[in-house]
Amino acid sequence: MSQEYFKSPKKKGKLAVFLSGRGSNFIAIHDAILEGKINAEIALVFSDKTDAPGLKIAQQRKLDTLSLNPKDFNSKQEYEQEIIKELKNRKIDLICLAGYMRILSPHFCRQFTNAILNIHPALLPAFPGLNVQRKALEWGVRYSGATVHFVTPDVDMGPIVLQAVVPVKQDDTEETLSQRILKEEHKIYPEAIKLYFEGRLEIRNRLVYIK
Ligand code: GAR
């Protein structure tokens, strides 16, 4: 167990949002910034998919966007090195993974220790990985939800910042449960980022304390 201590910075933060698809969490974060709820600006929206709908929305919102196709690189290492360069050039303070469906290498995670957040559509540590709303239905859990957590090299296992619980109904389908969870994601992700740049998140021995 790590003995680290971390306190999030109180400042106007520069965010990079990473997405691979629709981008509804990105929109929720951007809207919260526009409404003055989060002391931050989105300095980059990055995607591994050139045709990600979320990327198009970011362009319409006149944000700086970048998409890099991993297939255009010789290795994952080269691919990530290019992304790291773009992030460092923009002096990014916090990376927000918002439906980014690619696993970041330990090397990448270490470049941004305590500076990457992820949103996951389940109550971690239950149901890490993919298709987790379906797995929740298959297990017959009565409650599921969403988790915002720090990203560490152990996938979906970093310190938990916020969670929201939703009931699972008997007649739920993957879609209806996903929608109920997504509504909560849109609340807790902006809230976690707000707390981060208010300097109110502390990590001690891998537990997050909200000040
Ligand atoms: C969200 O439900 C998010 O929690 C999930 O992908 C969806 C993206 O939706 N992320 C993961 O499953 C990460 N493992 P969005 O593109 O509309 O924000």
Number of helices: 6
Mean pLDDT: 97
Please state how the strands of the largest beta sheet are arranged side by side.
Answer: 4-3-2-5-6-7-8
As a percent range, the share of strand residues is: 25-35%
User: Uncertain spans, ≥5 residues at pLDDT below 50?
Assistant: none
| Classification by helices and strands | alpha/beta
User: Which word captures the global form?
Assistant: globular
The structural domain count equals 1
- The CATH superfamily turns out to be Formyl transferase, N-terminal domain
CATH architecture: 3-Layer(aba) Sandwich
The percent of residues in helical segments reads: 25-40%
Word description of this protein:
The chain has 211 residues and is α/β, with parallel strands linked by helices. The protein has 6 helices and 10 strands, in the order E-E-H-E-H-E-H-E-H-E-H-E-E-H-E-E. The strands form 2 sheets. It has a 7-stranded mixed sheet, covered by helices on one side. The chain has a 3-stranded antiparallel sheet with strand order 1-9-10. Helix 1 runs parallel beside helix 6. The two termini are 22 Å apart. The relative contact order is 0.19.
Q: How would you sum up this structure in a few lines?
A:
With 211 residues, the chain is an alpha/beta fold. The protein has six helices and ten strands.
List keywords for this structure.
binds glycinamide ribonucleotide; 211 residues; alpha/beta; 7-stranded mixed sheet; single chain; 34% helix; 26% strand; 3-stranded antiparallel sheet; 10 strands; Rossmann fold
